[in-house]
Amino acid sequence: MSPMVLAASATTGLDVNGAAGSETGLVYTYADGSIDISAASSIMGTDGDDSYYVRRSSAYDVVEVYSGTSAVGTPIYSAPLADIRNISFDTGAGNDQLIVDLVNGTPLPPGGINYAAGTDNDSLTVIGDGSGAGSYQPGITTGSGNFAIGASAIAFSGVEPVTASNFSSLSITTPFAGDVITIDKPAPGQNRVSGTSDGLGFSSLTVFDINELLVDTAAHDTGDADDSITITDGIVASGLHALIINAGNGTNVLAIQNGAVPLRVIDGEDLAIDVHNSGAISLIGSQALRSLNLHDSSKAAVANGQNIIVHDLTIAPSAQMDLNDGELHVGNNGLFSTIRSYIRNARNTGLSGLWSGNGLTSSFVAANSDFAVAAIITSNGDVLVRYALIGDLNLDNAVTISDFIDLAANFNGSGIWATGDLNYDDLTTISDFIDLASHFGQTYTPPSAPAFAPASQAIVASPTTSTSETSSSPQKGNKKKTHSRRVVPHHRPGKARPGISRHE
User: Do the Cβ atoms of 369 and 450 come closer than 8 Å?
Assistant: First the structure.
């Protein structure tokens, strides 16, 4: 059975006397003394499996609908886009599919497309033009939702899977507060987002040839709404360079089981990230998280010049975090000794030289022998971890007499970075003195500041607290002078040993 097409041409007249059937296929409204009439086209499916392909014609501003999965043969319906208010598809029973292709521009009329898929296993496929944005919003009933493109949308019901490709960016916004989401790999080069929102299952979204994918679980949060997102096999969709998570309120968890994930988090102060097995996360933008926990042999890498803020940090013995040339701020200063142990392991236990071990390392430092990874406690109580010139105890981007005095004041004592322990053996010894002396007079001029760079902060001065960054030098009468420490906002370095100079 052929599909039935009910459509009005652009020149259909209106019987003002209201003769039966004269308004079929028309939508008309009265405004400002005139009647606006536009075509509302309806395409009825069969009881079998129906497929429809919708596109804008390549030569004219005409919407074409083909029976099948491509523009082959003669369209079953066509009309100038300017003359169409909306298009409706009612496909009834059977395993039906609707394909909307933006290859020649959007074919969506102002009122969009309505797709009533009916029962069985029905699908919606949207193909972009390589640019622009798409937005998928699952509805409040299973199988329903909206796929928006510009000012128009495809409204659907009875749809099981949604597939989108060839967009610059794409978003999915859950309809309720509490979300349980899985991102898996249904086929090579594809990722699929599925799950429930407040217990209601929504139509899955499969993506490929997308540059950015935003998963927004925060838009409909009310109070503390707990969300769970699990990534089973990494981000593998072709062309997908960034997964963006908007987590919102509540106790939210992102679990990465395997694979590589390029991640940027929005509003992540309530999001804990757990990376398991050999999973790898790339933190591609400055972001704030509740916690970052690297389990098993997992890895995390910070993109160049980025600033990561967490409250808690856990790095398993076989896991590694590469700070690169970024900054790490840890809100829980009770972890200071633990963080130093992560740095110690990375510096001293690798099989390929300094900074090649597991723990908290920096590939920038590993490639630039004048630098090391430094950890201090700032005046606001945070642990700050960043690269520094070897011997720059006060992190002012220079190795000066002030640093020498601080090291001398603590010579042969227990040590941390600010008191001269440069090789992370927890002591300030002749080895550290030699390291500082070999870099004495060096300065470093960072090129540019990253996002989220904090205001200058003083290093905490507390001689009685072993885990705080303290600097003191002897004065007459055996008194000690406490030096104010200014942390210069971090800037992203360029090539090896950039901006370093030595003043003799």
Answer: no
DSSP 8-state assignment for residue 82: G
DSSP state of 448: B
Which string of DSSP letters, residue by residue, matches 335-347? GHHHHHHHHHHHH
- b/e string for 423-444 if b means 16 or more Cβ within 10 A? bbeebbbeebbebbeebbebbb
Q: 486: which 2 tokens?
A: 């200014």
Structure tokens at 322: 């590469």
Q: Assign 204 to helix, strand or coil.
A: strand
Exposure string for 398-416, b = 16+ CB within 10 A, e = fewer: bbbebbbbbbebbbeeebb
> Distance between CA atoms of 165 and 129, rounded to whole angstroms?
9
Bin 36: left if φ > 0, else alpha if -120 < ψ < 50, else beta: beta
Tell me the residue length of the chain.
504
Sign of CA dihedral 334, 337, 342, 347: positive
Q: Give the SS3 label for residue 500.
A: strand
DSSP summary character for residue 95: -
β-bridge mates for residue 322, sequence order: 301, 361
CA atoms within 13 A on the CB side of 386: 34
d(CA 441, CA 436): 10
pLDDT at residue 504 in the model: 41
User: So what's the pLDDT on residue 31?
Assistant: 46
Phi then psi for residue 266, to 5 deg, are: -105, 135
3-state secondary structure 397-434: CECCHHHHHHHHHCCCCECCHHHCCCCCCCECCHHHHH
Q: Which tokens is 280 given?
A: 């790898």
CA-to-CA dists, residue 411 to 262, 311, 477, angstroms? 44, 33, 19
pLDDT at 500 (0 to 100): 54
Model pTM score = 0.83
Q: Which two tokens stand for residue 118?
A: 């009916």
Which ranges of the chain have pLDDT less than 70?
1-40, 447-504
Model pLDDT, residue 446: 77
Confirm if 114 and 128 have CB atoms less than 8 A apart. Answer: no
Distance CA 429, CA 302 (A): 32
Query: Nearest-5° angle of CA 437, CA 408, CA 339?
Result: 85
- 102 is written with which tokens? 């933006």
181 in Cβ contact with 205 (< 8 Å): no
Q: Is 106 left (phi over 0), alpha (psi -120 to 50) or beta?
A: beta
Judging by DSSP bridges, how do beta strands 383-389 and 327-330 pair with one another? antiparallel
Strands (E), 159-227: 161-173, 179-184, 191-197, 200-216
Phi/psi zone of residue 150: left (φ > 0), alpha (ψ -120 to 50 degrees), beta?
left
Read off the pLDDT of residues 34-69 as tens digits, 9 standing for 90 and up.
444 445 589 999 989 999 999 999 888 999 999 999
134 within 8 A of 109, measured Cβ to Cβ:
no
